[in-house]
Here is the input.
Amino acid sequence: MPSGHLPRVLRELADTLVPGGVVFCSNPRGDDREGWSGDRYGCYFDVERWRALFTAACFVEINCYYRPAGRPRREQPWLAMTWRKP
Here is the structure.
């Protein structure tokens, strides 16, 4: 979804979770751009931008890692994060 909707959607997601509820998010990592790639729309953000978005929605970070595991960073196109609602 376009990044302009992310703050609202993340706040609504937080509102639906019970306290202590967990969200897993896996996104293509990138250089803070977004747009269409074929039939898919993607937000190719770096870890700091994702952290800012989730933190602003009152989530607390549990874990962050790049996938697939065991490969050099340049071969890890996915950023995986888990977040908890306080």
Notes: The two ends are 25 Å apart (CA to CA). The beta strands are 22-28, 33-37, 40-44, 60-67, 78-84. The longest helix spans residues 6-16. The CA atoms of residues 59 and 72 lie 29 Å apart.
